[in-house]
Amino acid sequence: MLEEIQIKTSKKNELIDITNEVQKIVSKSKICSGICFLYC
What pLDDT digit, counting tens, does each position of 8-22 carry? Predict the structure, then answer.
């Protein structure tokens, strides 16, 4: 399974919490166990 989240930032270096977006994608997938890898 592959999903993409697009995020726009206003600074060169910025910390953005994407927890809610990742939770929604994992919940929607109906996957019960495993590992979620994020690459930025």
Answer: 999 999 999 999 999
H helices present in the chain, as ranges:
19-29
What's the CA gap between 24 and 35, in Å, rounded?
15
Q: Are 25 and 3 in contact (CB under 8 A)?
A: yes
Indicate the pTM of the whole model.
0.72
Alpha-carbon span 39 to 35, nearest angstrom: 13
Largest CA distance in the chain: 36
Distance CA 9, CA 21 (A): 16
Matching residue, tokens 């996957």: 31
